[in-house]
Write a structure and sequence with these properties.
The protein has helices spanning about 1-45, 50-70, 75-100, 105-130, 135-150. It is mainly α and about 150 residues long.
Length: about 150
């Protein structure tokens, strides 16, 4: 019975963290888009600039959602990051569709969801493997050396 409880609590924790990361990142993303809209209004940038900048903001939003979701996690970061990226794309689609007053292309939504899932997972894997502090790596290496030393003796 205990493994199911642990699995349920871990799944709940993953979803809770993914939602938290998504919401925090969404605040920053909306602020970035509003700032970009102000810049466009004041400077009169060409229409060709809007799509690439929106894509960069979207990718940074996915990365932010993944980062805030996995921050402080010890395991399953890749899954949490992927879910956070997926939730971020879904929520941003809903929010910006409500702002526009109409829903966009469903095919584009699915390709963006795949992008959110993959970027969230890859970023979480990178942070989980390379984002540790040097103190953590040093203590882990010392622990390995102690275990190897004991094994030789």
């Amino acid at each position: 019975m205990e493994p199911k409880t642990k699995t349920k609590s871990m799944a709940g924790d993953i979803i809770k963290r993914a939602v938290k990361g998504t919401l925090v990142s969404m605040v920053f993303t909306v602020a970035a888009i509003l700032l970009f809209a102000l810049i466009i209004k004041e400077t009169g940038l060409a229409d060709g600039v809007i799509a690439p900048v929106n894509q960069v903001i979207k990718i940074l939003g996915i990365i932010g959602a993944s980062y805030f979701a996995i921050k402080g996690m010890a395991e399953k970061q890749w899954l949490t990051g992927g879910i956070a990226g997926l939730l971020f794309i879904s929520l941003s689609y809903l929010v910006f569709s409500l702002i526009e007053g109409m829903f966009g292309s469903v095919a584009l939504l699915f390709s963006d969801m795949l992008m959110g899932l993959l970027i969230g997972m890859v970023f979480a894997i990178i942070v989980a493997n390379f984002g540790r502090s040097s103190k953590t790596r040093v203590s882990t290496n010392k622990t390995k050396r102690v275990h190897l030393h004991k094994a030789r003796v």
